[in-house]
Amino acid sequence: MPTHPQGHGHKRLVIGLTGRIGAGKTSAGKYLSSKYNFQYHRYSQVLSEWLAKDPDSKTSLQEVGWNVMSGGMQTELNKRLIDQIQPAPVDVAIDGLRHHTDYEFMRKSFGSSFHLIYIESHRETRWNHLKNRGKYASFDVFERADSHAVEQEIEKLRECAALVIHNESSLEKFHIGLDKLLQEFQR
User: Fold this and answer.
1) Long-range contacts at 165-171 (CB < 8 A, ≥ 24 apart)
2) What are the backbone angles phi and psi of residue 95, rounded to the nearest 5°?
3) Which of 27, 56, 82, 158 has the fewest Cβ atoms within 10 Å of its own Cβ atom?
4) What is the DSSP letter of 163?
5) Which domains can be identified in the chain, with CATH numbers?
6) Half-sphere exposure of 185 (CA within 13 A, CB side)
7) CA distance 147 to 25
8) Mean confidence (pLDDT) of the chain
């Protein structure tokens, strides 16, 4: 059950989540979904359903994502993601914007309802977020994934962000920061 009113008098929020691998995008999206009843969508899920041969492989999804971007299909990816979003007034969290094209597409699609959040963490913190989840076999594998070509435009999105959240502490403090962020957007 949402903790804020939906429907009459509530301006829809569409929050795009960006940041490096392991910064906390997925944690933020899942939190917004569970606590505030946001629809939660991920670029990686759309890629997986559309083109991935091995949807569980981060390496495979990065290759597919790079092929989409370098092959001029990023607009189609954005359209596919948008097609999965329920109509207003339900709020939306979109995890995994990686390119300026994604940001522009969301701004054009949702106007002033769209807010980009850049989640920032040091590399070692991001590795600590991920290592216990078994996503990467070693720090070297994590670093290779983090330096993949498809990940290289993410930091440029920082300048487009409505807010930057620093995720260097506990999950509880991260959630408190997200709560405050929503309060700001709802004013």
Assistant:
1) 165/24, 165/28, 165/117, 165/118, 165/119, 165/120, 166/120, 166/121, 167/19, 167/23, 167/24, 167/119, 167/120, 167/121, 167/125, 168/121, 168/122, 168/125, 171/27
2) -95, 125
3) 56
4) E
5) 14-186 (3.40.50.300)
6) 23
7) 17
8) 89
Tokens 């009459």 -> residue? 8
Task: Report the amino acid identity of residue 85.
Answer: I
Grouped pLDDT means (10 residues each) for the chain, 187 residues: 40 94 96 96 92 69 88 95 92 96 96 96 93 86 93 95 93 94 83
Taking the CB of residue 74, how many other CB atoms lie within 10 A of it? 19
What DSSP string describes 49-89?
Answer: HHT-SSTT-HHHHHHHHHHHHHTT-HHHHHHHHHHTSPPTT
Phi and psi at 118, nearest 5°, equal -100, 120
25-38, pLDDT tens digit by residue?
Answer: 999 999 999 999 99
| In contact, 96 and 68? CB cutoff 8 Å | no
pLDDT for residue 3: 38
Q: What are phi and psi of 15, to 5 degrees?
A: -110, 120
DSSP state of 134: T
Distance CA 167, CA 175 (A): 10
Side-chain-facing half-sphere of 149: CA atoms under 13 Å: 9
